[in-house]
Amino acid sequence: MILLTAYKNLNSMELLLKLSRDILEKGKSIRFQAKGWSMRPFIRDGDFIVVSPVKSSSIRKGDVVFYSNAENKIIVHRIVRKYKKNDRITVLIKADASFGSPEKVDIQNVLGKAIAIERNGREKRLDRKLYQIIGLFFAVISPFSRWIYPIGSIMKQSGRRILGVF
Predict the structure, then answer these.
(1) CATH number, domain at 86?
(2) Which residue among 77, 128, 135, 147 is the one 20 to 30 A from 10 at the CA level?
């Protein structure tokens, strides 16, 4: 009952942001279902994402983070750059499937780090070396995604046709 009283005047996005922040600040992880295709192929619509609290000092290029943007929307995207200017740490964050420019986000708005993705009953641990390398690869190719992703899509379709897979 206390929980409901404390959050009764918030809309659903504000409620999710507040609850997520409160849970992560207590050192607990959250798990939720991804909606959308912005992180495809790494995260797909319907995948479950596990997010854990993170210290700003341990956030690095290639990490998939859970953050709130200027409109207080909660988003899960990849860090493509981290820098310090005038004693403020800023990260550039971008969706894997986006051709646009990265979003500039103050490190204080990064609420947590994705540590696992669950798909079809299988879990991918993002804290393992293989997925850290894959994450760094996605961050490095991010500026070239406008050209790389269409080529990759054509190659994937050609491969399916050659193999007879539809």
Answers:
(1) 2.10.109.10
(2) 77
Residue 64 resides in a domain: yes
How confident is the model over 74-120, as pLDDT tens digits? 999 999 999 999 989 999 999 998 888 899 999 999 999 999 999 99
- Other CB atoms within 10 A of residue 126 CB: 22
Q: Is 166 within a domain?
A: no
Burial of 86-120, coded b for 16+ CB within 10 Å and e otherwise, reads eeeebbbbbbbbbeeebbebebebbbbbbbbbeee
From the list 126, 103, 153, 158, the residue with the least C-alpha distance to 47 is 126
The structural domain count of the chain equals: 1
8 A C-beta contact, residue 24 and residue 74: no
d(CA 30, CA 34): 12
pTM (predicted TM-score): 0.80
For 88, the domain range is 2-157
Q: Is residue 25 situated within a structural domain?
A: yes
pLDDT tens, position by position, 29-86: 999 999 999 998 889 999 999 999 999 889 999 999 999 998 888 999 999 999 999 9
